[in-house]
Amino acid sequence: MNARHAAELADLDAIGQAALAAAGDLSALELLDAAIARTEAARGLNAVITDLFERGREQAVALDESGTLRSGAAGPLAGVPFLLKDLGASLAGAREAMGSRALQNHVASHTAWIVERYLAAGLVVFGKTNTPEWGNHCTTEPALFGRTTNPWSPDITPGGSSGGSAAAVAAGIVPAASGGDGTGSIRVPAACCGLVGLKPRRARTSFSPSGHLLEGLAVEHALTRTVRDSAALLDAVTGGAPGDPYNAPLPETTFLDAIGRPPAPQRIMIATHSPFPAPPTDPRVAAAVESAGRTLESIGHHIEPGAPGFDAGAVADAISVLHNVSNVQLYNFATSHLGRDPREDEFEPSSWVMMREGFTTTGVDHADAIDTIHSQTRQFVEGMGAHDVLLVPTLLAPPPGFGILDQPRGTTRAFFDVEFAHTGWTTMGNVTGWAAISLPLAVTEDGLPIGVQLMAPDEAILLQLAAQLEQAVPWAQRRPPGWLGAPAS
């Protein structure tokens, strides 16, 4: 695969690449070799931290020889090269460090249900992407692997915790890569890297064979450049595994079909301020949200200013407790892996603060935090009134630099106070279990991405609105300086 051909393929989204394989114009192996060439060309980004090239080639050859690509039996994504986030997307036999020095030699013993679904859809897995330790940070600069560079600028974070996946997609290594979202970990990287980042509704997918993470706050999906790729990937992983504690209702039709139809006029509540204590929203971000509102209004939707109320302090306290408990689970997992108690210096300082607090968290503290999450969800939903959708910023300012969102602050609550002062509304998508999507609808005067976020109880309406916005405010040809594809004509 020559460099020119590899670069030209980067311009295609996942469905576009799969169409070439289905038509017989390129084989899955040729698509993979082009992605590997782009991976090698982008080593400076530090997005891919585990190469699984031979594993990917074996899978691609098997797909090519099976004839399923030409038959179309494997679906609209078959043959597309794909990267897995190194957290929440286990692949048996592959290294799974989860960004932690304590787990740097850990190898996954099982393949996650969601990865099995990706493989069943014909996605060709050939590597794993960088992530902060245990997904704790909305930036990707772990001590174990080092920082991932944002293709838009070496001075700004690609976000986190799915920052490696976001950087790989934004640069054109792959058209899509997996991610997970516990307080914004898909949507924040999407905003930082100029991508589509959908957090599905709670229980849309399964964490099997593991339990649900962060008491249901976390959910898995992907980073993409187009709305249709996000819809197709969600179709591939929709459903539950036997034994799941609960499941989201199955959609009436596929998400890919849904985006081909305009939705009924929606009642959309719009807010530009943060629900948590924070500096005023950057005027450029506020303007992007307001512009999105005007665009949606011009399409026929109803826009009304307002904001659902809830107890921000209670939510921050509850999120802190749940993360403390989650990090004790990391500590125990590392103990089992190492066969000894891990040392403090084997963890990130901010993770150690959470573990230290987690060691003294009581069962009542944990139960109260879960109860708070549910009670504040009810308050949030009541505050939405008759509105169908919430339109808000993703980040309250353009993408921040490094060394901000991963620092210990003395307490877990102080850590999240800093995070929420940057992210604003993102965590409420996780608290409520609603679906939420970040769209790259604007840029700053110096070309940095600005994300705008929509929230609703279900994904279908968000994807339909996103498709309308994608058509009205196209972003497909907006390329970062670190783009690996063919130069713009």
UniProtKB/TrEMBL annotation:
<feature type="domain" description="Amidase">
    <location>
        <begin position="30"/>
        <end position="457"/>
    </location>
</feature>
<dbReference type="Pfam" id="PF01425">
    <property type="entry name" value="Amidase"/>
</dbReference>
<comment type="similarity">
    <text>Belongs to the amidase family.</text>
</comment>
<protein>
    <recommendedName>
        <fullName>amidase</fullName>
        <ecNumber>3.5.1.4</ecNumber>
    </recommendedName>
</protein>
<dbReference type="InterPro" id="IPR036928">
    <property type="entry name" value="AS_sf"/>
</dbReference>
<dbReference type="GO" id="GO:0004040">
    <property type="term" value="F:amidase activity"/>
</dbReference>
<dbReference type="InterPro" id="IPR000120">
    <property type="entry name" value="Amidase"/>
</dbReference>
<dbReference type="InterPro" id="IPR023631">
    <property type="entry name" value="Amidase_dom"/>
</dbReference>
